[in-house]
Amino acid sequence: MADMRLTIATFPHGQWDGLKDGRAKPEGIELEHVQASPNTYRRMVRDLEFDVAEVALTTFVAAKWFGVPITAVPIFSNRDVTMSPITYNVRSGIEAPKDLEGKRVGLRSYTVTNTTQCRALLNSEFGVDTDSIQYLVSEDAHVAQYVNPPNVAQIPSGKTLEQMLADGELDAGLQLSVEPGGDIGLLLTEEEADEVGLGYFRRTGVYPIGHVMTIKDEVLREHPWVGPAMFRAFSESKDLYVDSLPGLADPGRRDLQALRNRDLVGGDPFPMGMTKNRKAMEAMVRMYVDQHVIPEPMDVDGLFAPGTLDLE
């Protein structure tokens, strides 16, 4: 019998190279690879465009809350412990994170994973009342059914967050494409932002999750064996990459990040399976409730495909 053909969208992370070049292959499956981009999240959760797709964890959890028919396998990527950059207009009176309270802060979308984590760290590490901030966004959420909280507004058509920050229409911005200089300052240096993330990790033991692998429910319903098969193939591909890290002659930025995180967590920088990631998943779901991505906690086991919860 011929292998089942599935479309798959993943980002160009080194840990998926083995899957793309055939060194790791899911049994009974032929994969048609598509390189993912941030727009892939929307295409998956709105149009179910791919059979398998790497999706930002915040987008996936929100999609599950609203009943989008996709389910995850416990394959996690894009992990780091740092904090997103916070820029501010020096005329805003902002001198410390606590000064963000009551200010106008720009970000691409309220449910972006990195900036959601940044808001949570502002709250937990600096005591910032993040609900007191007026957020201005340039994009709607990837999940069509999601409604922004009352303190979130769309910027006018024709304007950009970066220009609004420079003009003083915004007081600060989270993860904007703007360099410090002139009226634009950096609230935390890269080293200080790293230390915030490291401090959170050391205090809580939570290793934040950025992306998760998702599969259409239709595929899992008709072929429940696909979840475990994809888990094993992704794990094999990841292991090939992690084993190669120490010998890379010219490591890139993501390779260096993986090496740093390997030392930080004391081993595999990309642990797979729920046994090693339950604490992180539960913490991320609590974060999403606190930051109004979902209204109530969700059972993390219910987010993952049957037959994958005990895999390591």
Helix and strand layout, with pairings?
Blueprint (H helix, E strand, L loop, with lengths): L3 E7 L6 H5 L7 E7 L2 H10 L4 E5 H9 L4 E8 L8 E4 L14 E4 L5 H14 L7 E4 L14 E3 L6 H7 L4 E3 L9 E3 L3 H15 L6 E6 H6 L3 H19 L8 H13 L8 H17 L22
Parallel strand pairs: 1-2, 1-3, 6-7, 6-9, 7-8
Antiparallel strand pairs: 3-11, 4-11, 5-9, 5-10
List its salient traits:
globular, 11 strands, five-stranded mixed β-sheet, six-stranded mixed β-sheet, alpha/beta, 312 residues, single chain, 2 domains, 10 helices, D-Maltodextrin-Binding Protein, domain 2
Describe the structure.
The protein has 312 residues and is of the alpha/beta class. It folds into two domains: 4-80 and 207-303, D-Maltodextrin-Binding Protein, domain 2 (3-Layer(aba) Sandwich); 86-204, 3-Layer(aba) Sandwich (D-Maltodextrin-Binding Protein, domain 2). It is 37% helix and 17% strand. Strands 8-7-6-9-5-10 form a six-stranded mixed sheet, covered by helices on one side. The protein starts with a strand and ends in a 22-residue tail after the last helix. The model has no long low-confidence stretch (mean pLDDT 95).
